[in-house]
Amino acid sequence: MYAGPWVFARKPQETGEREDKSLPPVTLIHDNAAAQALGFKGGFVGGLTLLSLASGAIDASFGHMWYEGGTLSVRHRAPVYEGDVRVMWEERPSESREARRIGYHLENRDGEESTHGWATLPKPGEKPVPPWERHPVKHKSVDDDILPEMVVGQSRAPFEAIVKMKDFVPRLDAIKDYNWWYRYASPWGPPILTPHEVCYMLYQGRPQLRTNILRSSRLRTSMDAGTDLVMYSPLFVDHIYTMKARLVDKWQTARTVFFVTEYTYSDEKGKNIAMMRAYSAHLIRDLAPLERR
Fold this sequence. Notes:
By secondary structure, the protein is an alpha+beta fold. The protein has helices spanning 32-37, 47-54, 56-62, 131-134, 165-174, 195-200; strands at 2-3, 7-9, 71-75, 83-92, 98-108, 113-122, 159-161, 219-231, 241-252, 256-266, 272-284.
């Protein structure tokens, strides 16, 4: 088992401190008051922040090869509060068409684990297999669909996304990532984007779908449940990419609605260079708060 350095995991700003105050506080699980009203100790650290802290294991294990066919999968099954965390990883047995595989998770100072995931490299000459195609899951839903307007298969118009260096560097500094590939130069020439920055680009396409589920009166808060990513080639800082989004899955439990949105990334020549699936969980509004955790 390998261990990365301790890094302070910071949650986003409270709603009242943000420039964009359009979202009501009850929808933001990162706010202390909103999270405590639901029975949690406080606001959560964001899922993509946790992915940024975990993805150091990928660079350490695979180097530049991961950006030309690597995949990753991560799930957030427990809340993570502000504090020190580090990434832990180990080699795992490879599956069909894989050259190597690692498993990783985050650990806090008390030894509590969170943000579990894995990453792979394909065998030479093999195409990467997207995580969602490896072990497909058929979800069971309750009969009463609380959001029938969210139709699987619906999509939105393509949008352009770009990560600018002036915005990228502060986020790298916050997680103490000083790799030159992301700041100055990479094996492909210009600086490239980290895995979590590739995923972060989805927020440049608001609203993500025709129906804005964050505004629904039937839901009380939304949370990042996980991410799957497959890289066909690296993405570069200060480059414009075209993204397409479509809803590919939805299901519902007694207290939570889940959505899976698929994003495809293409370059200026129209070449598909990455695919990502974002998993979100939304608590149903009329439920009683959870017991305090």
